Amino acid sequence: MSDNLLTLLAVSIEFGVPIILLAALARVPRFRRRVVVVLGAITPVMLFYVDILFAYVRNPTNTGNRFAFYAGWEMTLAAFLLSLILGILLSFVPRPANLYGRYGLACSIVFAMFVLMDRAEISLPF
To answer: Within a domain: residue 124?
Structure first.
């Protein structure tokens, strides 16, 4: 598999999943309680992607920004999938009942997981 194909696949997964989840959030009211948790779980990773994008747009000649923009998508695919799976598992927890609380809880748990992995210097095995 070539690097361009791998990057295209990673970007399509990482941006396709939130679009599908947002469409499900708007169109299927009975799944809102679960979808909002999954969206909360992938929010920290999506904010990281926004940071990569803004850094590249701000200074595309910087080698670090170029590397993050071109290689960051496939390097963080495992973290995205891990937070997606964690969000799916967390969506089965019945409390809190409030949608904002469910979103915030999932977002904070995934963010704390990434911070703890960074502090313990644990890397994903992929």
So the answer is: no
